[in-house]
User: Which sequence fits this backbone?
């Protein structure tokens, strides 16, 4: 197989691969490592993806070899190689003491060169993993102060805030992502989710604040399906939020979207979800590529709420 | 068909219509110098041409006996060319040009120093500036309240110069770009690139001028207008020669500008062999360098301008307004 076809296999894998998927990718290691090195960008991208897959499946010998070749080519002081080396160290560490050691290394590297963004990001994830959440957040805040146009940092920051139930901060961070990537429909849906969770967190009352949050959530979801037809997560969210808006006793004065429209949106989302679920189950054309877990969840939602 | 001396004299006038033909082997130029006319030779255009290129007398240009042109007929020009012209001029020039291109590519790769990574403060200065631009262009993506709070914050911070690399330099005039070490580095790189272009070109052009100047080496298979004469016949100063004839120096120029597909084929897409590519890159330095603020630009002033741009933004149309109607209309 050629480098391009192999690389396409890695690209078509999902962002969070299942163990069997990872194993299949990791088993490509011998055929990739036996290819002659042509020094093309594609080949090195392939090496990087393969490194992550082999580390996921515990094939440390292959990972070591890949890392060796990468650092032979780009040098040990390359920022990206340092981060990959760090990932390898983290993956092969067996206890927390070793992880602390890796963390210390990251700190030393960053002291010499505070602009080493890949290593800074590794350090933040490791801090978070070691349950030093506030430290991770403050490190990430310094990073976005250094570079406020990095969408990845902002969305990670939103995730960390969300985990700590700091919803308004999470929403702020995701809005920053939208300023960078205005058409990121998944971020729109995520904003809907966070607004919904924030509304839930306020309590079960039907106060003005709750309605505001629910309607904001609905609008973000609507925008996500406006940007991406057939976005399952968006329709799922629309259905859930509209159901919530319909069931609670909300006085008309709190609403900005009239009840009939909410009703219509609810039925429209139900129809769309139904289409997606049946289409995906029957393997119809145009319904490929849905996450099976998401389809199952949508099916369950359709069964529980008519 | 091989007339001797006296016949020529009758054709001296026609020479300009029939054009010099160059049929001798170029190898002869390496031999003895022929600077004198024969005793019985009348000085005419042929002889002078022969002397100019140091050609021995036995390589007298051959001239077919043609009737003199009448006013009514258009003269088709015929030049008999020695096939050796192809092997000894056209071919060598092309090969040398290709080889120089390849060599230049590798020499440029060797000479180029990697761009120095920016300092943290410089990155911060640039990225926060971009942040302001992002906010301005994508303002409609976020709610009005979020936009206003961000705007107020950024305008205040931009005006106070919070993101500047060195806040003290705010009121000073911009530093001389020559004294900026980063600017010096960039200039040094540019000069190296330019030298890589200029030196080989000078050498090759000198070589061609010394050895091959004045040869007509090929005929284009299509007619051209008179404007192309200076482009295609540099080095051959014959007023009435058809534009289709290409001289060796012109062939050099055609190679210089037209070999890009060949280099792309040999060296890949982003090669440094072709000089037109380098010129394009010099035109927009922002495209391939990470320097947002060029040397000589004052970041403090740019920040102030951006703060003003943000301040005057009054129109805000949140994309989520009325989205439910848009979706309902679509379904």
Assistant:
């Amino acid at each position: 197989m050629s480098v391009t076809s192999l690389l396409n296999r890695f690209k078509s894998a999902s962002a969070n691969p299942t163990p069997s998927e990872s194993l299949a990718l990791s088993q490509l290691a011998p055929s990739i490592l036996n290819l002659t090195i042509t020094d093309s960008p594609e080949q090195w991208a392939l090496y990087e993806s393969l490194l992550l897959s082999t580390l996921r499946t515990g094939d440390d010998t292959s990972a070591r070899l890949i890392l060796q070749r990468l650092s032979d080519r780009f040098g040990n002081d390359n920022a990206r190689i340092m981060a990959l080396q760090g990932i390898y160290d983290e993956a092969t560490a067996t206890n927390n003491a070793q992880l602390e050691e890796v963390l210390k290394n990251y700190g030393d590297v960053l002291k010499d060169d505070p602009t080493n963004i890949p290593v800074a990001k590794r350090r933040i994830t490791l801090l978070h993993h070691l349950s030093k959440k506030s430290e991770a957040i403050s490190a990430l805040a310094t990073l976005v102060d250094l570079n406020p146009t990095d969408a990845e940092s902002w969305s990670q920051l939103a995730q960390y805030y969300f985990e700590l139930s700091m919803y308004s901060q999470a929403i702020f961070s995701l809005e920053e992502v939208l300023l960078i990537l205005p058409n990121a429909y998944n971020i729109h849906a995520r904003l809907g989710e966070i607004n919904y969770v924030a509304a839930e967190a306020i309590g079960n009352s039907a106060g003005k604040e709750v309605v505001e949050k629910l309607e904001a959530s609905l609008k973000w979801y609507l925008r996500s399906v406006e940007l991406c037809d057939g976005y399952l997560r968006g329709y799922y969210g629309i259905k859930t939020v509209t159901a919530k808006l319909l069931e609670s006793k909300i006085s008309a004065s709190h609403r900005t979207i009239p009840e009939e429209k909410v009703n219509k949106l609810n039925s429209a989302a139900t129809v769309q979800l139904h289409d997606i679920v049946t289409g995906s189950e029957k393997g119809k054309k145009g319904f490929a590529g849905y996450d099976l877990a998401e389809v199952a969840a949508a099916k369950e939602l359709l069964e529980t709420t008519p | 068909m091989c007339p001797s001396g006296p016949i020529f004299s009758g054709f001296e006038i026609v020479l300009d219509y029939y054009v010099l033909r160059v049929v001798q082997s170029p190898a002869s130029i390496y031999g003895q110098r022929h600077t004198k006319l024969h005793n019985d030779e009348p000085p005419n255009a042929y002889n002078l041409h022969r002397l100019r290129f140091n050609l021995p007398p036995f390589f007298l240009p051959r001239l077919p006996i043609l009737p003199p042109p009448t006013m009514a007929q258009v003269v088709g020009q015929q030049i008999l060319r020695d096939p050796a012209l192809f092997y000894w001029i056209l071919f060598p020039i092309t090969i040398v040009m290709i080889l120089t291109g390849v060599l230049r590519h590798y020499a440029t790769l060797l000479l180029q120093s990697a761009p120095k990574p920016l300092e943290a403060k410089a990155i911060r200065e640039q990225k926060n500036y971009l942040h302001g631009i992002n906010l301005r262009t994508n303002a409609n993506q976020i709610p009005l309240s979020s936009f206003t709070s961000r705007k107020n914050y950024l305008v205040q911070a931009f005006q106070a110069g919070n993101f500047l690399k060195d806040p003290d330099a705010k009121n000073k005039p911009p530093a001389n770009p020559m004294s900026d070490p980063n600017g010096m580095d960039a200039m040094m790189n540019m000069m190296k690139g330019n030298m890589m272009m200029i030196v080989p070109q000078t050498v090759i052009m000198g070589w061609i001028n010394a050895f091959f100047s004045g040869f007509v080496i090929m005929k284009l298979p299509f007619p051209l207008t008179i404007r192309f004469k200076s482009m295609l016949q540099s080095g051959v100063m014959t007023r009435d020669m058809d534009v289709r004839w290409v001289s060796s120096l012109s062939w050099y120029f055609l190679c210089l500008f037209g070999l890009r597909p060949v280099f792309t084929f040999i060296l890949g897409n982003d090669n440094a062999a072709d000089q037109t590519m380098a010129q394009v890159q010099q035109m927009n330095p922002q495209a391939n360098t990470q320097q947002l603020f060029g040397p000589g630009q004052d970041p403090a002033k740019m920040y102030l301008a951006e703060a003003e741009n943000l301040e005057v933004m009054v129109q805000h149309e949140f994309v989520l307004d009325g989205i439910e109607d848009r979706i309902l209309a679509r379904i």
